[in-house]
Amino acid sequence: MLKAYMVLSIILFSIGVVGLISRRNIIVMYMSVELLLNAVNLSLIAISADLADSSAQVISLVIIAIAASEAALFMSLFVVLFRNRASLDANLFDMLGSKK
Amino acid sequence: MQNEIIFTILALITIVSSIVMISAHRPIDSALSFIVTLVSIAALFALVNATFLFVVQIIIYAGAILSLILFIIMFLNIKDSNLPDEKHKNRWLMGTSIIVAPFSYILIDLIMRSDIAVNGVASENFGTIKDVGLTLFSKWILPFELVSILLLVALVGSVTLSKKED
């Protein structure tokens, strides 16, 4: 059962990496990052159930809290970027890197 | 035996909905299929007796974070002209999958060869709020306090970012 959980977690992580690299829509990129965090959580929970140790569950609780704060920051970034450029294209959001 | 059948069904739902999530054109479609992914991952948590994490996953991820995403998508009033025109989206997805596939194959092969299945005997109250809470407040008290600081910084940062410049 643990091996099946780990394999599923690896597959989900790979799907998240593919979505993060190949898409340009910034909301889909954000959700791919969340998918990466969820894949890690899944393997942590499987390990904790297999070892009968609840430390890994605490680690995934911390990861969920980090994902929540990341969500808050990403949402305000979406609002600011959409207000400035009126688009969701990640290629247009280069205000940090280039002079106007 | 029954657990394996439930696991297979949930794993298929998770994989299919996450593939739909990364390949949908409109963000509202990918957000809705991401909810399906998160709920089935929560069911996978419940399958290994992690009841507290099951509740947390449902409430925080599928409840709070995804409703925040849906709220933002509807609040921004996104039209088709605002979306990036990803003409070669399918080609990009295929190419990236071909690049990423060998790495995941190596990892899966490593997992299948190893003998990691320890199968410790879970006690009666494993995964309950009492068990997780006792571990959190005894061994992991410093990360817990650091998370509270992190949440405060995220709160201040999101208010500062979305403030209108004058």
Spell out the key features of this protein.
heterodimer; A: 100 residues; mainly alpha; Helix Hairpins; 78% helix; 0% strand; elongated; B: 166 residues; Four Helix Bundle (Hemerythrin (Met), subunit A); 2 domains; 6 helices; 75% helix; globular; cell membrane (chain B); NADH_UbQ/plastoQ_OxRdtase_su6 (chain B)
Q: Layout of SSEs?
A:
The complex is a heterodimer of chains A (100) and B (166).
Chain A: H1 2-22, H2 26-51, H3 55-85
Chain B: H1 2-23, H2 27-47, H3 51-76, H4 89-113, H5 129-138, H6 141-161
Gist of the model:
The complex is a heterodimer of chains A (100) and B (166). Chain A has 100 residues and is an all-alpha fold.
What's the mean pLDDT score of chain B?
Answer: 88
Number of helices of chain B: 6
Structural class of chain A: mainly alpha
- Fraction in beta strands of chain B: under 5%
Query: What is the CATH H-level superfamily of the largest domain in chain B?
Result: NADH-ubiquinone/plastoquinone oxidoreductase chain 6, subunit NuoJ
SSE order of chain A, as H and E? HHH
What is the helix tally of chain A?
3
Q: What is the CATH top level name of chain A?
A: Mainly Alpha
Head-to-tail CA distance between termini of chain B:
64 Å
The residue-averaged pLDDT of chain A reads 88
> Do you know the CATH topology of the largest domain in chain B?
Four Helix Bundle (Hemerythrin (Met), subunit A)
Catalytic activity (chain B): a quinone + NADH + 5 H(+)(in) = a quinol + NAD(+) + 4 H(+)(out)
GO molecular function, one term (chain B): NADH dehydrogenase (ubiquinone) activity
GO cellular component, one term (chain B): plasma membrane
InterPro entries (chain B): NADH_UbQ/plastoQ_OxRdtase_su6, Nuo/plastoQ_OxRdtase_6_NuoJ
